[in-house]
Amino acid sequence: MLDNLTWTHGNHTIKTGVDFNFSPGKQQRETNYGGQYTFKTLSDYLAALAGDNTKISRYQQSVAANGTQGQYKGTQREYAAFFTASIKLHRDLTVTAGLRWDGQVNPQPTTPNPDEPITRTIPNDLKMWQPRLGLAWNVGGKGTTVLRLSGGLFDSRTPSYLMQRVFTDNGLNTVVLDTNTDNSILKFLKVPNAIAQLPADVKTPINSLYAFDPDFRNPRSGQVALAIERQIDKHTKVTLGFVRNSTWNLQRRLDTNLFAPVTLSNGLPVYPAYDSKGVLVQASGFNATTGQAIFIDSATGKTFTPKVARPDATLGQINLNKSVAHSGYGGFSINVLRRMSRAYNLALTTRTRSTAMTIRTRATSIASQRSTPSI
């Protein structure tokens, strides 16, 4: 719902309004709800189809648990109010000022994991205050040169698809069957069907979970634009422009259930692993030929194949949506507009721009959180 009210008096204009948006959503995005069979050969598949389950190389299936249907259902509610005024301070100078407020109220998980407090809440954002200011100046009052300057703060919404896994993947609501974890699953299979109900006493892989950082906020950008328009002759106009945009609180999903890595001399950040004695071992170097990290067992002194070591061994990945990314953009433009005839114009535009993105974090090196664990 959008409602506006505009008041005009002479050369002054005031506009105010409110905007309400309710966005219901329903998603089911889990993989392998229908089961996934893997066979080494076609003959193995045909044998399994005839009832020989020993020919199944691997079977994987996601199963909804904890009384859920493996679905996300929720409604985002967004509220906004704004005020803007355009005031002609002089016949050649117009100033436009405004303020906008946005609030986003997010759906909350209905069946959170009681052992993991971060799965209970998806933060709302009710602090999106966005002032804006613009200026238009007819330099010299002749209408041949116009200077335009504008700037302001702008907030962006967080879409609900980022919230789906908080509902369905919190360490309880979805479990995964995998014959690589428990080979007894084979006896419940009938190719090509999926398992209809979670078998009792079957081992499942350690679950991962998804959640939102309690300090999560919607992205915010500061924008500034400057343009100078110059009338060369009655048929030609040249415009020089500059725009700068700096955005903070961009969303990134980071696995926080990891120990701090070391960065090898080849620039590769590698996470530690447990050796045969349960000692947490950092990579001691890397293979110059393959580039792979080298781990030395403290008990035997020999190299070993590492597996990811996690501070919370009862969980896999703890994928936390965080507001930690920043991007910057700057660009210049030159535009030439030439009226060729009553029916035709010729426009030439050239632009140069630069962009950058960084990610910040409060605790450990961000490079360590973004890199792929050594497995």
The structural class is mainly beta
Q: What's the story with the biggest beta sheet?
A: 11 strands, mixed
How many helices does DSSP assign?
A: 3
In terms of quaternary structure, the protein is single chain
**Shape annotation:** elongated
List keywords for this structure.
375 residues; 11-stranded mixed beta sheet; 3-stranded antiparallel beta sheet; 3 helices; disordered C terminus
Give the helix/strand layout.
Blueprint lengths: L1 E8 L2 E16 L8 E3 L3 H8 L8 E7 L7 E19 L2 E13 L19 E14 L6 E11 L8 H5 L5 E5 L30 E4 L7 E14 L2 E20 L6 E2 L5 E2 L2 E2 L5 E2 L3 E2 L6 E2 L23 E22 L5 E15 L6 H5 L5
Parallel strand pairs: 10-19
Antiparallel strand pairs: 1-2, 2-5, 3-4, 4-9, 5-6, 6-7, 7-8, 8-11, 11-12, 12-19, 13-14, 15-16, 17-18, 19-20
What does this structure look like?
With 375 residues, the chain is mainly beta. It is built from 3 helices and 20 strands. The chain has helices spanning 42-49, 164-168, 366-370, and strands at residues 2-9, 12-27, 36-38, 58-64, 72-90, 93-105, 125-138, 145-155, 174-178, 209-212, 220-233, 236-255, 262-263, 269-270, 273-274, 280-281, 285-286, 293-294, 318-339, 345-359. The strands form 5 sheets. Strands 1, 2, 5, 6, 7, 8, 10, 11, 12, 19 and 20 form an 11-stranded mixed beta sheet that branches. A hairpin with a 5-residue loop joins strand 19 and strand 20. The longest helix is centred in the first third of the chain and has 8 residues, at 42-49. The chain is elongated. The two termini are 51 Å apart. The model is unreliable at 361-375 (pLDDT under 50).
